[in-house]
Amino acid sequence: MSVIEMKVPVIGESVTEVTLSTWLKGNGSYVDLDEPICEFESDKATLEFPAEAAGKLIHVASEGDDLEIGALVAKIDTSESKPAQDSDTHPDQEVVRAEQSQPQQEKKSEDQSYATGHPSPAAAKILAEKDIQPSEVMGTGKGGRITKADAMAATKSAQTEETHAGSVIAQASTAFSRSSRREKMSRMRRTIAANLVAAKNQSAMLTTFNEVDLSNIIALRKQYQEQFVEKYGIKLGFMSLFAKACAQVLMEMPQVNAILDGNELIYHDFVDISIAISTPTGLVVPPVKNVESLQFHEIEFAIKSLAEKARAGTLTLDEMKGGTFTITNGGIFGSLQSTPILNRPQSAVLGMHGIKQRPVAIDGGVEIRPMMYLALSYDHRVIDGSSSVTFLVKVIELLEDPVRLLMKI
Fold first, then answer.
1. Which of 26, 172, 25 lies closest to 92, judged by CA?
2. Among the three residues 127, 162, 184, which one is the final residue of a domain in this structure?
3. Are 124 and 164 within one domain?
Protein backbone atom coordinates (compact mmCIF):
# COMPACT_ATOMS: atom_id res chain seq x y z
CA MET A 1 0.00 0.00 0.00
CA SER A 2 1.46 3.34 -1.10
CA VAL A 3 -0.01 6.41 0.58
CA ILE A 4 0.46 10.09 -0.25
CA GLU A 5 -0.22 12.58 2.53
CA MET A 6 -2.09 15.71 1.48
CA LYS A 7 -1.15 18.69 3.67
CA VAL A 8 -2.24 22.34 3.68
CA PRO A 9 0.17 24.10 1.31
CA VAL A 10 1.80 27.50 1.76
CA ILE A 11 -0.81 29.89 0.36
CA GLY A 12 0.59 33.36 0.97
CA GLU A 13 2.98 35.28 3.18
CA SER A 14 0.28 36.47 5.58
CA VAL A 15 -1.86 33.30 5.59
CA THR A 16 -1.06 31.01 8.54
CA GLU A 17 -4.32 29.12 8.83
CA VAL A 18 -7.26 28.07 6.65
CA THR A 19 -10.68 26.52 7.17
CA LEU A 20 -11.72 23.36 5.32
CA SER A 21 -15.04 24.67 4.06
CA THR A 22 -16.20 21.93 1.68
CA TRP A 23 -15.20 18.42 0.63
CA LEU A 24 -15.62 18.14 -3.13
CA LYS A 25 -14.83 14.41 -3.22
CA GLY A 26 -16.32 11.81 -0.91
CA ASN A 27 -14.36 9.74 1.58
CA GLY A 28 -13.25 6.53 -0.14
CA SER A 29 -13.87 7.82 -3.66
CA TYR A 30 -11.32 7.61 -6.46
CA VAL A 31 -9.59 10.86 -7.46
CA ASP A 32 -7.43 11.73 -10.45
CA LEU A 33 -4.20 13.68 -10.34
CA ASP A 34 -4.86 17.45 -9.97
CA GLU A 35 -8.58 16.88 -9.41
CA PRO A 36 -9.92 19.31 -6.74
CA ILE A 37 -10.76 17.37 -3.58
CA CYS A 38 -11.82 20.17 -1.24
CA GLU A 39 -12.04 23.92 -0.77
CA PHE A 40 -10.10 26.01 1.72
CA GLU A 41 -11.38 29.32 3.01
CA SER A 42 -8.52 31.68 3.83
CA ASP A 43 -8.61 35.17 5.24
CA LYS A 44 -9.08 36.62 1.77
CA ALA A 45 -10.36 34.02 -0.67
CA THR A 46 -11.70 30.51 -1.24
CA LEU A 47 -9.19 28.13 -2.83
CA GLU A 48 -9.48 24.66 -4.36
CA PHE A 49 -7.04 21.98 -3.16
CA PRO A 50 -6.02 19.58 -5.97
CA ALA A 51 -5.04 15.93 -5.52
CA GLU A 52 -1.27 15.33 -5.66
CA ALA A 53 -1.75 11.82 -7.00
CA ALA A 54 -4.39 9.46 -8.37
CA GLY A 55 -5.97 6.90 -6.08
CA LYS A 56 -8.43 6.32 -3.27
CA LEU A 57 -9.14 9.40 -1.15
CA ILE A 58 -9.12 9.03 2.64
CA HIS A 59 -10.48 11.98 4.62
CA VAL A 60 -8.49 13.03 7.69
CA ALA A 61 -9.83 16.52 8.42
CA SER A 62 -13.51 17.41 8.61
CA GLU A 63 -15.54 20.26 7.14
CA GLY A 64 -15.32 23.31 9.36
CA ASP A 65 -11.90 22.41 10.78
CA ASP A 66 -9.36 25.21 11.17
CA LEU A 67 -6.04 23.94 9.83
CA GLU A 68 -2.57 25.43 10.11
CA ILE A 69 -0.23 25.49 7.13
CA GLY A 70 1.30 22.01 6.86
CA ALA A 71 -1.56 20.25 8.68
CA LEU A 72 -2.70 16.88 7.35
CA VAL A 73 -5.90 17.11 5.31
CA ALA A 74 -6.25 13.73 3.63
CA LYS A 75 -4.40 10.68 2.36
CA ILE A 76 -4.43 9.10 -1.09
CA ASP A 77 -3.90 5.36 -1.51
CA THR A 78 -2.14 5.22 -4.88
CA SER A 79 -2.31 1.40 -4.99
CA GLU A 80 -6.02 1.61 -5.74
CA SER A 81 -6.90 1.53 -9.44
CA LYS A 82 -9.71 3.50 -10.99
CA PRO A 83 -13.03 1.60 -10.98
CA ALA A 84 -14.67 0.85 -14.31
CA GLN A 85 -17.51 3.17 -13.39
CA ASP A 86 -16.63 5.67 -10.69
CA SER A 87 -19.91 6.93 -9.29
CA ASP A 88 -18.13 9.16 -6.77
CA THR A 89 -21.09 8.64 -4.47
CA HIS A 90 -20.75 9.26 -0.78
CA PRO A 91 -22.39 6.55 1.40
CA ASP A 92 -24.77 9.11 2.84
CA GLN A 93 -26.05 9.85 -0.65
CA GLU A 94 -27.27 6.33 -1.50
CA VAL A 95 -30.72 7.05 -0.07
CA VAL A 96 -30.84 10.40 -1.87
CA ARG A 97 -29.91 8.75 -5.18
CA ALA A 98 -32.61 6.11 -4.73
CA GLU A 99 -35.24 8.78 -4.09
CA GLN A 100 -34.14 10.79 -7.11
CA SER A 101 -35.26 8.18 -9.64
CA GLN A 102 -37.43 10.47 -11.75
CA PRO A 103 -36.65 10.33 -15.51
CA GLN A 104 -35.13 13.81 -15.61
CA GLN A 105 -32.70 12.90 -12.80
CA GLU A 106 -31.69 9.37 -13.79
CA LYS A 107 -28.46 10.38 -15.45
CA LYS A 108 -25.90 12.13 -13.27
CA SER A 109 -24.25 15.09 -14.99
CA GLU A 110 -20.51 15.13 -15.36
CA ASP A 111 -20.03 18.23 -13.19
CA GLN A 112 -21.82 16.70 -10.19
CA SER A 113 -19.66 15.42 -7.34
CA TYR A 114 -19.73 14.44 -3.70
CA ALA A 115 -21.12 17.91 -3.01
CA THR A 116 -24.26 17.24 -5.07
CA GLY A 117 -27.27 17.00 -2.76
CA HIS A 118 -25.01 17.12 0.28
CA PRO A 119 -25.71 19.92 2.79
CA SER A 120 -23.02 22.08 4.37
CA PRO A 121 -22.70 21.70 8.17
CA ALA A 122 -24.86 24.78 8.81
CA ALA A 123 -27.45 23.65 6.25
CA ALA A 124 -27.55 20.13 7.66
CA LYS A 125 -28.26 21.47 11.12
CA ILE A 126 -31.13 23.66 9.89
CA LEU A 127 -32.69 20.80 7.91
CA ALA A 128 -32.37 18.39 10.85
CA GLU A 129 -34.08 20.87 13.18
CA LYS A 130 -37.03 21.15 10.79
CA ASP A 131 -37.05 17.43 9.92
CA ILE A 132 -36.47 18.14 6.22
CA GLN A 133 -34.67 15.55 4.11
CA PRO A 134 -31.75 16.78 1.93
CA SER A 135 -33.34 14.97 -0.99
CA GLU A 136 -36.24 17.45 -0.81
CA VAL A 137 -33.94 20.44 -1.27
CA MET A 138 -32.40 21.73 -4.50
CA GLY A 139 -28.77 22.72 -3.92
CA THR A 140 -27.54 25.94 -5.56
CA GLY A 141 -23.98 25.79 -4.22
CA LYS A 142 -20.90 24.65 -6.09
CA GLY A 143 -21.45 21.20 -7.60
CA GLY A 144 -25.07 21.15 -6.40
CA ARG A 145 -24.16 21.51 -2.73
CA ILE A 146 -26.99 22.52 -0.39
CA THR A 147 -26.05 25.85 1.17
CA LYS A 148 -27.35 27.53 4.30
CA ALA A 149 -29.47 29.81 2.10
CA ASP A 150 -31.03 26.76 0.40
CA ALA A 151 -31.87 25.26 3.79
CA MET A 152 -33.39 28.51 5.03
CA ALA A 153 -35.51 28.78 1.87
CA ALA A 154 -36.71 25.18 2.30
CA THR A 155 -37.55 25.92 5.93
CA LYS A 156 -39.59 28.97 4.97
CA SER A 157 -41.40 26.94 2.29
CA ALA A 158 -42.21 24.20 4.80
CA GLN A 159 -43.47 26.76 7.31
CA THR A 160 -45.71 28.33 4.66
CA GLU A 161 -47.27 24.97 3.83
CA GLU A 162 -47.85 24.23 7.51
CA THR A 163 -49.44 27.63 8.01
CA HIS A 164 -51.92 27.16 5.16
CA ALA A 165 -52.76 23.65 6.29
CA GLY A 166 -53.00 24.41 10.02
CA SER A 167 -55.41 26.33 12.18
CA VAL A 168 -55.18 29.91 13.42
CA ILE A 169 -53.52 28.63 16.59
CA ALA A 170 -50.93 26.77 14.53
CA GLN A 171 -50.28 29.96 12.55
CA ALA A 172 -49.67 31.94 15.74
CA SER A 173 -47.40 29.21 17.09
CA THR A 174 -45.28 29.33 13.94
CA ALA A 175 -45.11 33.13 13.95
CA PHE A 176 -43.93 33.25 17.58
CA SER A 177 -41.02 30.84 17.30
CA ARG A 178 -38.48 31.01 20.15
CA SER A 179 -35.84 28.87 18.49
CA SER A 180 -32.22 30.00 18.19
CA ARG A 181 -29.00 28.47 16.97
CA ARG A 182 -25.27 28.95 17.35
CA GLU A 183 -23.00 28.95 14.29
CA LYS A 184 -19.26 29.31 13.94
CA MET A 185 -18.26 32.48 12.11
CA SER A 186 -16.67 31.90 8.71
CA ARG A 187 -12.98 32.63 8.41
CA MET A 188 -13.68 35.60 6.15
CA ARG A 189 -16.20 37.04 8.61
CA ARG A 190 -13.71 36.61 11.48
CA THR A 191 -11.02 38.35 9.46
CA ILE A 192 -13.36 41.20 8.53
CA ALA A 193 -14.29 41.63 12.20
CA ALA A 194 -10.64 41.72 13.29
CA ASN A 195 -9.69 44.21 10.57
CA LEU A 196 -12.57 46.54 11.40
CA VAL A 197 -11.69 46.59 15.10
CA ALA A 198 -8.03 47.19 14.23
CA ALA A 199 -8.97 50.05 11.89
CA LYS A 200 -10.94 51.74 14.69
CA ASN A 201 -8.36 51.12 17.40
CA GLN A 202 -5.11 51.65 15.49
CA SER A 203 -5.84 54.82 13.51
CA ALA A 204 -7.00 58.36 14.23
CA MET A 205 -10.01 58.05 11.94
CA LEU A 206 -12.18 61.06 11.12
CA THR A 207 -14.81 61.63 8.44
CA THR A 208 -15.62 64.71 6.40
CA PHE A 209 -18.88 65.04 4.43
CA ASN A 210 -19.97 66.94 1.34
CA GLU A 211 -22.46 66.58 -1.49
CA VAL A 212 -22.20 66.46 -5.27
CA ASP A 213 -24.65 67.51 -7.95
CA LEU A 214 -24.68 64.71 -10.54
CA SER A 215 -26.77 66.54 -13.16
CA ASN A 216 -23.92 66.81 -15.67
CA ILE A 217 -22.66 63.27 -15.09
CA ILE A 218 -26.15 61.88 -15.66
CA ALA A 219 -26.57 64.00 -18.79
CA LEU A 220 -23.17 62.82 -20.07
CA ARG A 221 -24.06 59.17 -19.60
CA LYS A 222 -27.48 59.65 -21.19
CA GLN A 223 -26.04 61.41 -24.24
CA TYR A 224 -23.15 59.06 -24.95
CA GLN A 225 -24.14 55.75 -23.38
CA GLU A 226 -25.37 54.13 -26.58
CA GLN A 227 -22.20 55.06 -28.51
CA PHE A 228 -20.03 54.01 -25.58
CA VAL A 229 -21.63 50.56 -25.46
CA GLU A 230 -21.44 50.21 -29.23
CA LYS A 231 -17.71 50.98 -29.25
CA TYR A 232 -16.54 49.23 -26.07
CA GLY A 233 -19.19 46.60 -25.35
CA ILE A 234 -19.82 47.76 -21.79
CA LYS A 235 -21.84 50.53 -20.12
CA LEU A 236 -20.30 53.67 -18.68
CA GLY A 237 -21.12 53.45 -14.98
CA PHE A 238 -20.81 55.87 -12.10
CA MET A 239 -18.00 53.88 -10.51
CA SER A 240 -15.49 54.42 -13.31
CA LEU A 241 -16.20 58.15 -13.32
CA PHE A 242 -15.76 58.38 -9.55
CA ALA A 243 -12.63 56.20 -9.66
CA LYS A 244 -11.08 58.32 -12.40
CA ALA A 245 -11.89 61.57 -10.57
CA CYS A 246 -10.36 60.22 -7.36
CA ALA A 247 -7.28 58.96 -9.20
CA GLN A 248 -6.68 62.35 -10.80
CA VAL A 249 -6.86 64.16 -7.45
CA LEU A 250 -4.80 61.48 -5.67
CA MET A 251 -1.98 62.07 -8.14
CA GLU A 252 -2.17 65.78 -7.26
CA MET A 253 -2.36 65.09 -3.51
CA PRO A 254 -0.02 62.15 -2.80
CA GLN A 255 -0.49 62.39 0.98
CA VAL A 256 -4.05 61.10 0.61
CA ASN A 257 -2.65 58.17 -1.41
CA ALA A 258 0.07 57.40 1.15
CA ILE A 259 0.40 54.61 3.71
CA LEU A 260 1.87 54.89 7.22
CA ASP A 261 4.52 52.28 7.99
CA GLY A 262 5.91 52.69 11.48
CA ASN A 263 7.53 56.14 11.57
CA GLU A 264 7.70 56.39 7.79
CA LEU A 265 5.22 57.34 5.08
CA ILE A 266 5.12 55.38 1.84
CA TYR A 267 4.11 57.53 -1.13
CA HIS A 268 2.94 56.01 -4.41
CA ASP A 269 3.39 57.25 -7.96
CA PHE A 270 0.37 55.20 -8.99
CA VAL A 271 -3.24 54.79 -7.88
CA ASP A 272 -4.64 51.33 -7.13
CA ILE A 273 -8.26 51.79 -6.08
CA SER A 274 -9.84 49.02 -4.02
CA ILE A 275 -13.51 48.55 -4.92
CA ALA A 276 -15.76 47.28 -2.12
CA ILE A 277 -17.79 44.30 -3.40
CA SER A 278 -20.50 42.59 -1.39
CA THR A 279 -20.51 38.77 -1.59
CA PRO A 280 -22.57 36.07 0.16
CA THR A 281 -19.62 35.43 2.51
CA GLY A 282 -18.71 39.04 3.25
CA LEU A 283 -17.24 42.24 1.87
CA VAL A 284 -14.09 42.04 -0.26
CA VAL A 285 -12.03 44.95 -1.61
CA PRO A 286 -9.90 43.84 -4.59
CA PRO A 287 -8.00 46.70 -6.25
CA VAL A 288 -8.16 47.99 -9.81
CA LYS A 289 -4.53 48.77 -10.52
CA ASN A 290 -3.13 51.91 -12.16
CA VAL A 291 -6.48 53.64 -12.42
CA GLU A 292 -4.66 56.88 -13.22
CA SER A 293 -3.51 55.32 -16.54
CA LEU A 294 -6.68 53.46 -17.51
CA GLN A 295 -9.49 54.64 -19.76
CA PHE A 296 -13.11 54.53 -18.58
CA HIS A 297 -14.02 51.33 -20.42
CA GLU A 298 -10.90 49.61 -19.06
CA ILE A 299 -11.91 50.52 -15.52
CA GLU A 300 -15.45 49.24 -16.14
CA PHE A 301 -14.17 45.89 -17.46
CA ALA A 302 -11.74 45.56 -14.54
CA ILE A 303 -14.49 46.21 -11.98
CA LYS A 304 -16.88 43.80 -13.72
CA SER A 305 -14.26 41.04 -13.79
CA LEU A 306 -13.37 41.47 -10.11
CA ALA A 307 -17.04 41.56 -9.07
CA GLU A 308 -17.86 38.36 -11.00
CA LYS A 309 -14.88 36.55 -9.51
CA ALA A 310 -15.65 37.82 -6.00
CA ARG A 311 -19.24 36.57 -6.09
CA ALA A 312 -18.15 33.25 -7.59
CA GLY A 313 -15.45 32.89 -4.92
CA THR A 314 -12.65 32.61 -7.48
CA LEU A 315 -10.56 35.68 -6.62
CA THR A 316 -6.89 34.81 -6.23
CA LEU A 317 -4.73 36.11 -3.40
CA ASP A 318 -2.77 38.24 -5.87
CA GLU A 319 -6.02 39.86 -7.02
CA MET A 320 -6.84 40.71 -3.40
CA LYS A 321 -3.48 42.27 -2.57
CA GLY A 322 -2.61 45.94 -2.55
CA GLY A 323 -4.66 49.04 -3.01
CA THR A 324 -3.76 52.62 -2.10
CA PHE A 325 -7.30 54.05 -1.76
CA THR A 326 -10.80 52.56 -1.44
CA ILE A 327 -14.23 53.44 -2.83
CA THR A 328 -17.37 51.90 -1.34
CA ASN A 329 -20.89 52.48 -2.65
CA GLY A 330 -23.55 52.06 -0.01
CA GLY A 331 -26.02 53.74 -2.32
CA ILE A 332 -26.70 50.50 -4.17
CA PHE A 333 -28.28 49.22 -0.94
CA GLY A 334 -30.25 52.42 -0.36
CA SER A 335 -27.88 54.20 2.03
CA LEU A 336 -28.32 57.99 2.16
CA GLN A 337 -25.36 58.71 4.41
CA SER A 338 -22.80 56.68 6.32
CA THR A 339 -19.30 56.74 7.79
CA PRO A 340 -17.06 54.34 5.84
CA ILE A 341 -14.30 52.64 7.80
CA LEU A 342 -10.67 52.59 6.70
CA ASN A 343 -9.29 49.68 4.71
CA ARG A 344 -5.96 49.27 6.51
CA PRO A 345 -3.16 50.06 5.82
CA GLN A 346 -4.68 52.66 3.47
CA SER A 347 -5.17 56.18 4.78
CA ALA A 348 -8.48 57.13 3.16
CA VAL A 349 -11.75 55.71 1.87
CA LEU A 350 -14.51 57.42 -0.12
CA GLY A 351 -18.11 56.51 0.60
CA MET A 352 -20.70 56.99 -2.17
CA HIS A 353 -24.41 57.01 -1.34
CA GLY A 354 -27.82 57.04 -2.95
CA ILE A 355 -28.74 59.64 -5.58
CA LYS A 356 -31.77 61.61 -4.42
CA GLN A 357 -33.74 64.39 -6.07
CA ARG A 358 -33.43 67.32 -3.63
CA PRO A 359 -34.11 71.07 -3.75
CA VAL A 360 -30.87 73.07 -3.92
CA ALA A 361 -30.11 76.78 -4.24
CA ILE A 362 -28.87 77.65 -7.76
CA ASP A 363 -28.05 81.29 -8.61
CA GLY A 364 -30.53 82.65 -6.08
CA GLY A 365 -33.29 80.23 -7.06
CA VAL A 366 -34.35 76.75 -6.00
CA GLU A 367 -34.05 73.78 -8.34
CA ILE A 368 -34.52 70.04 -7.97
CA ARG A 369 -31.20 68.29 -8.64
CA PRO A 370 -29.92 64.68 -8.39
CA MET A 371 -27.71 64.95 -5.30
CA MET A 372 -25.40 62.47 -3.60
CA TYR A 373 -23.77 62.75 -0.19
CA LEU A 374 -20.07 61.85 -0.16
CA ALA A 375 -18.08 60.83 2.91
CA LEU A 376 -14.29 60.70 3.14
CA SER A 377 -12.91 58.83 6.14
CA TYR A 378 -9.21 59.37 6.69
CA ASP A 379 -6.36 58.69 9.08
CA HIS A 380 -5.60 62.02 10.75
CA ARG A 381 -2.05 60.86 11.49
CA VAL A 382 -1.34 60.95 7.75
CA ILE A 383 -3.86 63.44 6.34
CA ASP A 384 -4.62 66.86 7.80
CA GLY A 385 -8.21 68.01 8.04
CA SER A 386 -7.66 70.75 5.46
CA SER A 387 -6.20 68.20 3.01
CA SER A 388 -9.18 65.89 3.43
CA VAL A 389 -11.64 68.72 2.72
CA THR A 390 -9.59 69.93 -0.24
CA PHE A 391 -9.44 66.42 -1.69
CA LEU A 392 -13.20 65.99 -1.49
CA VAL A 393 -13.88 69.42 -2.99
CA LYS A 394 -11.54 68.72 -5.91
CA VAL A 395 -13.25 65.39 -6.62
CA ILE A 396 -16.65 67.09 -6.55
CA GLU A 397 -15.47 69.80 -8.95
CA LEU A 398 -14.41 67.16 -11.48
CA LEU A 399 -17.69 65.27 -11.17
CA GLU A 400 -19.82 68.38 -11.51
CA ASP A 401 -17.83 69.48 -14.56
CA PRO A 402 -16.90 66.18 -16.27
CA VAL A 403 -15.29 68.00 -19.20
CA ARG A 404 -12.45 68.86 -16.81
CA LEU A 405 -12.21 65.21 -15.91
CA LEU A 406 -12.00 64.16 -19.55
CA MET A 407 -9.40 66.86 -20.27
CA LYS A 408 -7.47 66.10 -17.06
CA ILE A 409 -7.48 69.72 -15.90
1. 26
2. 184
3. yes
Rounded to an integer, the average pLDDT of 360-376 is 95
Spot the catalytic one: 34, 86, 318, 380: 380
Kindly state the average pLDDT of the residues 166-182. 67
Dist. CA 95–CA 74, nearest whole Å: 26
pLDDT at 104 (0 to 100)? 43
**CATH code, domain with 28:** 2.40.50.100
CA atoms within 13 A on the CB side of 267: 8
The catalytically annotated residue of 90, 261, 384, 401 is 384
Q: Find the Cα–Cα–Cα–Cα dihedral 14, 16, 20, 25, rounded to 10°.
A: 80
Integer Cα distance of 237 and 218 in angstroms? 10
Instruction: Find all residues with CB under 8 Å of 205, minimum gap 6, and list them.
Output: 199, 341, 342, 377, 378, 379, 380
Report yes or no: 274 and 326 within 8 Å, Cβ to Cβ: yes
162 and 305 housed in the same domain: no
Same-domain check for residues 300 and 220:
yes
**Has 380 been annotated as catalytic?**
yes
Does residue 384 carry a catalytic annotation?
yes
Rounded to whole angstroms, the Cα distance separating 392 from 123 reads 45
Co-location of 130 and 262 in the same domain: no
Q: Identify whether 359 is preceded by a cis peptide bond (ω within 30 of 0).
A: no
Q: Which domain holds residue 306?
A: 189-407
Helix (H) or strand (E) run with residue 76 in it: strand 72-77
Mean pLDDT of the region 338-352: 94
